Amino acid sequence: MPLLTSPYADLDLIRQPEQPNDPLQAFDAADEYLLQHLAAQAPGVDCRVLVLNDAFGALAASLVGHVQVLSSGDSHLAWLGLQKNLARNGKAPDSVPFVPASAQWQGPFDRVLLRVPKTLALLEEQLIRLQGHLAPGAQVIAGAMLKHLPRAAGDLLEKYIGPVQASLAQKKARLLTATLAERPAFVSPYPTTYRLQSPALELRNHANVFCREDLDIGTRAFLPHLPNNLGSARVADLGCGNGVLGIASALSNPEAQYTLVDESYMAVQSAEENWQAALGEREVEIRAGDGLAGQAKQSLDVVLCNPPFHQQQVVGDFLAWRMFQQAREALVVGGALYIVGNRHLGYHSKLARLFRGVEQVAATPKFVILKARK
Question: Which stretches are transmembrane (predicted)?
């Protein structure tokens, strides 16, 4: 794979999760453009730089030793990528402090290097949180590939930070530079909430939660078919989002033990708050993680999963396939994975390669609910 070459460093970078012969790079032209632009400003070693939404640590790892760098984002996989890429390039793991999107950073920052996220609500929340954390004359420099840069990104920068200057396109990437100006104090509109009728729940959703405004149709199809009579089974909600599957299952299975996992820190934060509201102090483990990668083998009886079909801007079934493999490792013999998926994704045949029995529990015109037994 090619190196990320910038005025700061030449880095050998990998994506997370790792794939054999991965055709995709861990950086793109927008990362290169951001680093070139910052270097042209010649910031000193005392310059405090906040890096936001750095997919696999390309920006933060490049800046180590050149400025005071802090990284923040909503992806646990991005944090893992940062850790691995620092080590891969001979840099100390603690050379870049990391703040999850569920926590608050502390400024003031002189520069913010920001990769425009897929979810504009996350961008808006991050810009609002910068209030009071920018030094006088600070700039927020947002970078994206042209095909992933919505017009609204510039509008949000203008609204919350100050006047915006758009760069010329370079290798199909563009930068938007917002210079700090006086703005009124803003109150974040996040988290948002919505209500379910069955089960009767009010669900809080932080800015980067999937289907933040309403229950997604896949989960809606899945809910009536969650397994009951689980007794004291050990159950995981894999890719839990706001926790709705795990919480609904727990309400119907008062003796079962639950683990909820997601790679989004804001999803985990939402799931924690929703579990507390629905189930009070009932014991649960809710964590940010690389799926079930850290789960002990044969430690679960049931896994519930509405698998994702994209990672950031990349669409594909790699993450879903990996989740199925992780579930198989974590399940006891005789344990079961329950999933919902679009009919056209062909999950039945994929699961049949890993599990000894796969059956269709239910179907709608668009979705199938499958049970795979180990």
Answer: none
